[in-house]
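Listing 4. Sequential folding, example run.
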Amino acid sequence: IVDTDAQGRRFLSREYVQPQWIFDSVNARIVLPMENYIVGRIPPPHLSPFVNYDEEGSIPDYSKIIKNLQDAAR
């Protein structure tokens, strides 16, 4: 987990992701795919665990993707 792409050396055996990946994975209660969180990419929008998007009437696209991943993990 790194905050910037300024690390001097990279190891091919490691995946480098942004810290948001941890929080989003914990909130989703599954290990989310890392490709959206690779260092240097703009990460997906952060979804608050305190908002019920169904009640709000507007479900973000990334919330739908996470829901599909959660269903597949069961």
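-- end of first protein; second protein begins --
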Amino acid sequence: MTTTQNHNLEFSPIRGFLLPIHNHELKKFLPMSFMLCFVLFVYTILRDAKDTLIVTAPGAGPETIPFLKGGIVVPISIALVFLYTKLSNIYSRDTIFKFIVIVLVGYFALFSFVLFPNQNFFHPSPETITNLQLQFPNIKYIFPIWGYWSYTLFYLTAELWSAFMVTLMFWQFANEITRTQEAKRFYTLFGFIAAVAVFIAGFTSFYFSYYSAVDVTDTKAWSRTLQYLASAGIFSGVMIIYLYHWITKNVLTDPVYYDKAESVVKHKEEKPKLSFMESLSYLIHSKYLGFIAILVLSYGVTFGLCELLLKSKLAQQYPNPNEFNAFMGVLSMSTSIAGVVLILFVKNVIARFGWYVGAISTPIILLLTGAPFFFFYFNLELLTPLATLLGLTPLAVFILISMIQNVLTKAFKYSLFDATKEMAYIPLDQELKVKGKAAVDVIGGRLGKGSSGFIVAALLVITAGDITSLAPYIIGCIVFLVAIWMISIKGLNRLYSNIVKD
């Protein structure tokens, strides 16, 4: 009997609910938890800052984001994932892990301490960008991507941190070193730890954004905020590398904590690497997988479009970058709190009411909270009585409404949408389960990330307008996609129920 089995005792009810981790497992669980905290901390402050930079930059605004996502982030991310798979065959995981952390955090520091404070030297003048926009109005939002090239690289850095450090490096590492019996307990707590990390990062962004704005000009205040955030990012990067090294040296060398044959990934078939066309073919020939892909795509595109509408109003309410970033910090804090509360309240919804109710909840919430969001987007003046009562402007009240829509949709996504999506794979045979999930990840993940950008960028090029003028078309796309989403859930539920019954 192994040491782990000797310690495999029942927990008390309170310990089982709060911390179902054996004392001897803390040596493994705690460093993994802190590592996840630091990874998500950097992810959150980068995510909030990247939007602030682009939305508040002169001549850029939220209209630039679709071009960034569709034209820069998606193709470069795909190319770098391909490069990563090649380098994985040449260099060790340790080398690649440390290299990615150093490069991404290094650019965060370089940007904050060198490029941004001296942007007048490194960037063309705002007048140059404006003149080009006037000459070519249909593609005017492409020029800020070139003009503010250091901002573009910062935006890309934030997206790559999400794609590589969160998805690839941490979770692959965790899956490899975590035994199946440990994963059932560790991974549940990781969800709460992730929420704590996002809350701390949101508070950090909020605090530094206000603290830096004392007695200095807007530009200097925002520069100082970035330097504070970069300092926190550098510290986090050092801790990530240290914890990774410590786990490798002290946990993976001890058979009590690590047995390669018992790791999570060894209990799963190796995930195949499918090309985009292979994935598309796989989904076309499987109605069941096609429905799952539509679910993932629908959420990604609709939520991306909703966020663009929100940011167009945020740009009006908070033209000052410190104020904008402070709001993004509050939004991150609110999302983490709502996510934890909702997980506690709805954890038995699927067991009590079934898969269909759990799956349909997210699009219904998006529509219910989206209805006032869409309506008041065009009718801000109707919020005047409420705004007067609260001592706010109609736009500020609208921001609160849109914040509720954003937070609740994300909270339902994390608590119910993700769970029902993963449940849908369970009744499939092994080949469909493994290859199908890979295909959905390629189509839903990569295409879904850029599709909202492609849609809005195309509309902006055709009309030479802005987000506000395109809002009716964007909202029409959202409603249409939610309808497709709900129809697909109904179709998938029928197939899912038949398979489960059989």
